[in-house]
Amino acid sequence: MEPWGEANTMFFGVNKREDILLAGLKLFSARGFENITLSEIQANAGVSIATFYRHFRSKEQLVNEIYRDLRRLLETKLAAALIEGESARAQFRKLWVQMMVFHREYPGVIDFLENRHHGAYLDEHSRALEHLPQPIVALMENMSRDRAARSVSPIVLAALVWGAFVELIRLRSQEYLSLSEVELKAAEECTWDAIRAVSSESEGVIASVTPQPA
User: Fold this and answer.
1) Is the pLDDT of residue 13 over 50?
2) What is the pTM assigned to this prediction?
3) Is residue 211 part of a domain?
4) For residues 187-193, average pLDDT
5) Residue 212 in domain
6) Is residue 205 predicted with pLDDT exceeding 90?
7) Domain that holds residue 40
């Protein structure tokens, strides 16, 4: 099976433009933006150079559209896990599960989005999306408001959550971890303990979350 699993057509759809987007995503993820040529993208997508230029002005435009589409996809999928009226503990558990579901459905996407070398070619529209996933930030903000979280910035709390998850994915991809269901559950519980308020009964606090659009 390819490293992208069976979700090859699930990122963007099925047509020539989407074939180019998917080819670019695979190649950029495997070898980096700078090491890929237009002819390689064209060949991988099964299109002519003329077809490429019919849809994209340049390799830079292509990588930026890939980045923006995938960042919005991540935000949408994570936001679906947050249900108004549930306790902070229940929302956090569902959010953690949804992050893993996203990784399994779209293998390689989180690695691509968290690539530290994006800065050289992302345009201003893409850089505006280069932040912690908003559904995580929204939950941390509401937990802080309801005194269900530790008394630190919600951004710090969100960074702890997202950073822990991304590092687990990275270690799994390098085969340092298997990330069994038992390990995932333990990691979720440890991360919850790191962010929850120590002196309050945060388990039962109801958190109303309205994620802001990216």
Assistant:
1) yes
2) 0.81
3) no
4) 97
5) no
6) no
7) 1-56
